[in-house]
Amino acid sequence: MIKAIKGFNDILPNQSAQWLQLEKVLAEVMSRYGYQHIRLPIVEQTDLFARAIGGATDIVEKEMYSFADKSDPPTPLTLRPEGTAGAVRAVIEHNLLRGDTPKLWYIGPMFRYERPQKGRYRQFHQLGVESFGSALPDADAELIAMTHLMWQALGLKDEMSLQLNSLGEIDERHAYRDALVAYLTDKQHLLDEDSKRRLTTNPLRILDSKEASTQALLVDAPKLADFLGEESMAHFEQVQAYLDGLGIDYQINPHLVRGLDYYNKTVFEWVTDKLGSQATVCAGGRYDGLVGQLKSTDSRNHDSQANSKPIQSEPAVGFAMGLERLLLLIEAVAPFAETAACDVFIVTHPEVYSSGMIYAQNLRYQRPDLRIKMASATSLKAQMKKADKSGARLTVIIAQQELDEQKISIKNMQTGEQTSMNQNWLADIENFK
Ligand code: ATP
Ligand code: MG
Q1: Which ligand 1 atom sits closest to the C-alpha of 258?
Q2: pLDDT attached to residue 304
Q3: Nearest partner of 83 among 372, 320, 267, judged by Cα
Q4: Strand blocks (E) in 69-218
Q5: Which has the closest alpha carbon to 90: 78, 99, 102?
Q6: Mean pLDDT of 318-344
Q7: Hey, whose CA ends up nearest to atom 8 of ligand 1?
Q8: pLDDT of amino acid 320
Q9: Least confident segment among 22-36, 231-245, 298-312
Q10: Which one, 129, 151, 156, 432, has least CB within 10 Å?
């Protein structure tokens, strides 16, 4: 028997109602803020991710699902590990940055080759938002406020805490990186293996090492905040002032650096203590350089462009949330009310099945609010068994006698009571639900 690939999950009918409900609540919140939906391809050129996300990141180093297509020469392609790179490619390619700058959201599967565990899968789903065109801190605050409203709409407001940091600008980060490397170099032997490697590839990521010994070393290390210039500091302070004004609590976490290279200035994460080590449900930040970086034909990475002619960019800020983690949290603390898949079940004697079909079809036209299910034209007894299992509150029974009398039989599935009613009784009845 061929099974699903490890880390790739089926979302079965007993879970899909929760997914649909979650997606509906989130989509409503985004539409209340005037954000528009965009649908992007699942496969992109590998180069797009390598350039956008950065070579020395977990995703590009070891997590991408990449393959070559059948063209000659083959094009290196990758199943998208995240949505920002594709969204930025699309807005550049279709000139969406001219005129009113877009505020976009997308939802869908992402793919990363990681060790599967609770809250971590190889195919997972993200909802992402990208807001283009504003370099000002109000854009950062608006996104955070929107996520805050999402938690409120989902009944999760008390489960989430907001962590905030500023990564400053590239030159500030470079100066800090040099200071951090200088501080750690002669203490290398005390670092965990990952951090030792990162000392040469991506030193800032050492800050979010989970190793206690590494964290102990960092207590006396130089602080990124001390390297931020006036403009970065003012931006960060204004984001905080907006959040204070909105009554949104946050903690400043100087070790929050995010795994992806494209961020600058504000970065944030919403974390919960209910999901063990997969604690981050939503993460985002500002990425003012990415549009320019992907517009350029220069394939060198962002950092090396510091010396070449600056490319005109377009400021942007965004976030992505992991829907599996969000659903695990919802299940744990605020599950959606269960709704039966069916309100009315229609049982029809097989000899008059066509009349039953017509009745059901008319009722569906008349009562779009009801979920109306029919069984196949087997024996009445077999159909009644299905009605019992359906969760329906009422079963309509139609046989020759009912048709002769122009009536229907209604069985109340809670009490078992059966009554004879006019054929249009259900079409007209109010407050059924
Ligand atoms: P982590 O530190 O947990 O690996 P990340 O920094 O790689 O997360 P992002 O790239 O910022 O995660 O993705 C945003 C969100 O998507 C995460 O906060 C998480 O909720 C979700 N997510 C990321 N990777 C996975 C995965 N493999 N399985 C399920 N959800 C994921
Ligand atoms: Mg990760």
Answers
A1: 6
A2: 46
A3: 320
A4: 76-79, 103-111, 123-132, 161-166
A5: 102
A6: 93
A7: 280
A8: 98
A9: 298-312
A10: 432
62 alpha carbon – ligand 1 mean position (Å): 14
Domain covering 13-169+229-333: architecture? 2-Layer Sandwich (3.30)
Of all residues in the chain, the percent with pLDDT exceeding 70 is 96
Give the strand order in the sheet containing 43-45: 43-45, 76-79, 65-68
Q: How far apart are CA 325 and CA 154, in angstroms?
A: 13
**What would the pLDDT profile of 175-193 be if each residue is shown by its tens digit?**
999 999 999 998 999 999 9
Mean pLDDT, the chain, rounded, equals: 93
Tokens 């989130």, residue located: 26
Q: Is beta strand 251-252 parallel, antiparallel or unpaired with respect to 161-166?
A: parallel
Structure tokens at 292: 């320019």
Within 6 A (CB) of ligand 1 lie: 82, 112, 114, 119-121, 124, 126, 259, 278, 280-283, 320-322, 324-325
pLDDT-derived band at 352 (thresholds 50, 70, 90) equals very high
Ligand 1, residues 325, 326, 327, 330: which to mutate, most atoms within 8 A of Cβ? 325
Class (C level, CATH) for 344-422: alpha beta
Question: What are the structural domain ranges in the chain?
Answer: 13-169+229-333, 344-422
pTM (two decimals):
0.91
Helix (H) or strand (E) holding 214: helix 212-218
C-beta separation of 205 from 181 below 8 A: no
CB proximity list for 328: less than 8 A, separation 6 or greater = 118, 119, 275
Residue with the bigger pLDDT between 414 and 338: it is 414
Cα–Cα distance measured from residue 383 to residue 406, given in angstroms and rounded to the nearest whole number: 21
CA 260 to centroid of ligand 2, rounded, Å? 9
Nearest CA to ligand 1 atom 24: 120
Residue 341 pLDDT greater than 50, yes or no:
yes
CB 348 within 8 A of CB 356: yes
pLDDT above 70 (res 299): no
Residue 62 carries which DSSP code? I
Taking residue 418's Cβ as centre, other Cβ atoms within 10 Å add up to: 11
Q: What share of the chain is helix, strand, coil (3-state, %, to 5)?
A: 45, 20, 35
Residue 431 has a pLDDT of 67
Q: Are 321 and 151 in contact (CB under 8 A)?
A: no
Tokens encoding 275: 């999901």
Q: Is 384 left (phi over 0), alpha (psi -120 to 50) or beta?
A: alpha
Q: If pLDDT is split at 50, 70 and 90, which confidence band does 311 have?
A: low
Query: For residue 19, what is the enclosing H or E element?
Result: helix 13-32
Phi/psi of residue 268, each to 5°? -150, 155
